[in-house]
Amino acid sequence: MSDFSGELTRPMAEADQVEKSMLSGTGMSIPWLRKQMETVETGGKKEKDFAKTTSACLGLIQEALLKHQWEKAAEYMHSYFQILEDSDAGKRQAAPEIIWRLGSEILYYHPKSNVETFSTFADRMKNIGVMNYLKISLQHALYLLHHGMLEDANRSLSQAETWRYGEKSSSQDILINLVQAYKGLLQYYTWSKKKMELSKLDEEDYAYGTATQNMRSHSWKTSVNLSALIQIPGVWDPFVKSYVEILYQIVPSHKLMLEFHRILRNSDKEEHHKLGLEVLFAILDFAGCTKNITAWKYLAKYLKQTLMGNHLAWVQDEWRSRKNWWPSFHFSYFWAKNDWTEDKALACEKALVAGILLGKGCRYFRYVSKQGHQGLKKKMKRMNRAVKSYSIVDPGL
Amino acid sequence: MDFPSSLRPTLFMSGPLGLSSVPNLSFMCSWRDALTLPESQPQSAENVAPHLARDLRWEPETPGPFPLLPPSPDPWDPGPTAHDLLFRGGHQSCRRPRATLDVTEQLSRFLWDHGDIAFGPLGNLMQENFKLEGARSRSKTKTVVSVKRLLQDLGGHQPWGCPWAYLSHRQRRFSILGGPVLGGPVASLLGELLKEELAGRWGQLLLDDAFTGGALAWVPGKMPLVGQLVYPNGGALDRLCFQEVSVTPGSDPQVLGDPGHIQLRGPVRQVVTRTVQGEALLAVRSDYHCAVWKVSKQGRPAPLQVLQVEKGATGINLSPHLPGELAVCSRSGAVCLWTPQDGLQQVYKDPETLVFRDPSPWRWADFTAHPRVLTVGDRTGVKMIDTQGPPGCGLLLFRGGAEASCQKGERVLLAQYLGESSPASLSPTLHLICTQFSLYLVDERLPLVPMLKWAHGLPSAPLMAQLLPAPCPGAPRPLLLGGQGGQLQLLHLSGEEVSVPRLAGPPQSLPARTDALSGFPLLEPASQRRLQERLDAPTIGLAAAVPPSASTSGLALFHLSKAGDVFYQHLRLQEGSSFCRDAGLPSDPSPEPHTPTAAAPTPSRTPTPTTASWTPQATAYCSRWLKALLKVPLPPPVWTAPTFSHRHLLGYKEQLQDGGKVLAGLRAAMTQGRLLRQRDVGSFPTAEPPPAPESGPEDELSERLDEAWEGRGADWWRRRQGRSLGLGHQPRRHKRRTQLSSTFSSLSGRWDLSDGPSPPPSPHRTSPVPRPLPPATPHSQGLTQELWTRGVPVERQQTLQDYMARLPSSGLGATSAPPSQASSIRSTPSRQQAPRKKSRMGF
């Protein structure tokens, strides 16, 4: 909030911030360098009073904001407007951006502010320092949207869409695309609203025809508006919801992976079966999935199945990289006790896996199998038998 | 682990930092975060956007933190300040002020204080060419110069740094001739090293990355309300203390018993603790060593292993997944996975930085959601390394560049894994990255583009951060960010199951240690300054405990300062915060009706921040601590060179004819190159104490102030007068008066000498015994004038006066200041320039 990062205060950043704060030699800029230097009296020229008061005022506003004293911040803001008359051209140019940021923050939280106040402020700021017109319009529209004023938001975006200033720069282009995309999203809302209305109408009705017409034109507009933006690299989730497909590849911890495993398991191909085992092991690598009972159940069942199918090598392949940390990560005494008290079914599944992978002597298995539980007697027996017959650990060793 | 259903719209840019001419839309202000777009249900579009809690605030219970533990009995020296390191003169342009290191001052201080070291060897070589008295002699092979006159001109010593100091022609000639020989080697040998050292100190003053991560830890104990604070103490921060503290909600914490401690061989830089699978571990990083302890259920630490890091360790972290596993990184660029059982496994090594070239050797390592994947960080970025994969492979998690819209000169200062296996309202894949401008939350599944960015604007380096558990289920989690200067910020993070992490309310600042000043009683200036200096000490550790409580959500916050002080602050979640009141409904479907013409909100919804006040218990803690602090001795003043008068020495040479013991001692000292001490030259019959480092008048002043503070000022004055009378201080006062009167008399017609009596005797000449010289250059012009007038017969004085009047005023004209006045002027700067104790950099 206080540094008004690079792009926003480009003129100031170049003239002031960077050079004033650069630590010689390292290339690192130190925002508090100036403060340190001010503790030393130098014989040089002093900062002008004007600059001093404005920077002090800025500090006070920030302090008030961080203390949530919105009224106080608003009062200081009155005085801060003097920066618009700074003789330093760079500072003067950067001022509207700072004022917009601080002002909108104050007005968003101020107990006495309302939508009108905010809109008035936004409209004024749009025209002070034209460079911010698009950004402020967009934020204003989002604010209105957030307050449920879809039509006003749409109006604000439409105005911004047609706005041009000077030579078209790349940043302006992107902003206009974004404005159009948000507009498209608003149109999408209207479209789906219309669709809802349509579903209530009778097909024979005269109104139905006009409504369909309306709907089609909306969907066309929406698609036009959205398509421009998604050409630009970025994250456009609300606009395009097609990212799920790629998840299988990049996020092994995703819960959809269990489904993926099921598909693989039921496949005819042998390599799919091997991949299915890999997927299960990989899910359980993650700290967030350690208590996923489905994953453990699948693994227990699938291990048995794999070993029955004489694929001991597959299991050993997966186990090799994990045998030095899975025992303490999953199968420690602590977890055995913890799992048993929290979820007996999970403990049983885990114990079975532990028994297969580590042998009967492992702490987890021993702990769980010793907890004679009435309802689980049969299960325990089965577990013991399974471990005896499938364990990959050579009992002779 | 669910992937967020919809990510915030972000532009993806690639390129170096400082490039972002493209608008960065996501991270502008705190409310912007709340405006995530509703997805598909237009009917509920008005309500679905999570509402930003305006009144979400942690309220401090006292205006500032207060000292919890007694101060360390060792004296503490705040070290050099910017004032000591930077050049103070010269002309600075207002627009581009540059920090210039003052090598000259430090060098001349060194020459002044340690002349024996600086000039001793050369002096030894040249010894035979100089003698203390007699006429000079010249032979074919060598010239021997008498330095008697030179020493006389020096007259004791030159007031250091005095711009008006007078140089005689002889001195100037000597300095021109001898300067290159005497000064050259010293300056060339020492200058380079000194400059390097000063640059290092200055860099350290701006950013002391040794304490990255913080050196204070809270180890939860067996009972939920009792825990142990682990922190370094002692002057060198080399004593690791374990203090049991019980935090009871609703009342002040209780310190249980005396702290246990372990003496280490180096300063503690970082203390990390984690409880994994019920096993509490404690890891400590020193400059060249790392150590790990296991803390038993009873709170007793048992050492597991110590590791020596040859190049210097920069970071240590404990695994949140496997007990006893650590990540250690060193200045050499190596990152190792360390387990006390299996030893070290080098995971990554690269002396170069990750993204672009940066000279800092600082490295950092932490864990990720996958127990076998580590993050490796340096100033330019953070990379994820799979320890099971082939060496060198990995994926950048954060890049100092356009992807995160970094500014020019922005550098990574801290990287921290935020996930825990505890029930979390945030995804366990989040990482916190702090730079000097902003903080970023990055999801390891979606690297490079931050999920959240907040420009913290702290006025010092944010080197400590801690994500705290939610005070009640469903509430946003507080993220504590601490700057080295003591500033604290608290962010409220929320991001349930499938939503993107976001700010749940406007961030807030918390009181810093300097805010504690109002809790202390008013002190007399010297002690007040000392207290303030102590409170201003950099923060090197931060720990927080959330005592479980049914009624109020509280937060116990501990600060550790570089002086070894542990301060405590209690925070309470604002009553108005709906999170805990509404039995934990994080996304209330209709938090408030969003009517377009929103009526003025009721005042109860946005209560004004209540002003906290000091509780009697807190002030009691403060005053008890202060009492102990004032008993702590001041750090011993840095050694100051004894000064002794050369003229004085010359005088003795004449007196001590018996064997020249002084001379022998002097010779011996010179040949050995050591300091001449009194016992080398025998006892001086009227030994003059060397001028003290000018603390006399100040002591008298503070004594007087002390007394005046107690209301006994008049008594003191009377006592003092009595004492001075008794001790025969009359002559001094008399002397002062004569000096003064001489000044005045000289102002009223100095040259009118016709009425006979000679001018008031100058103290310089009248006192027959050697006395302490005023720390000033005798004004030789004035002296000469006096000598002139004295030797001239009365009848010729008028002629002389006329003659003098015709001389150009630059000569011995009457315009020159009278001697005593001049000398008093000249002596003032030297008195003002009382040697500052801390600026000597330990020479």
From TrEMBL, chain B:
Top-rank taxon: Eukaryota
InterPro entries: TAF1C (IPR038801), TAF1C_beta-prop (IPR049087), TAF1C_C (IPR049089), TAF1C_HB (IPR049090), WD40/YVTN_repeat-like_dom_sf (IPR015943), WD40_repeat_dom_sf (IPR036322)
The TAF1C helical bundle domain, residue ranges: 529-748
Single GO cellular component term: fibrillar center
Positions of region (Disordered): 579-615, 679-705, 726-843
Gene this chain is encoded by: TAF1C
Gene Ontology MF terms: RNA polymerase I core promoter sequence-specific DNA binding; RNA polymerase I general transcription initiation factor activity
Comp. bias regions, Polar residues: 739-748, 778-787, 817-833
Protein name per UniProt: TATA-box binding protein associated factor, RNA polymerase I subunit C
Extent of Basic residues compositional bias: 834-843
TAF1C C-terminal domain location: 774-843
Organism of derivation: Loxodonta africana (African elephant)
Residue span(s) of domain TAF1C beta-propeller: 283-419
Sequence ranges of Low complexity compositional bias: 595-615
Bias (Pro residues) ranges: 757-777
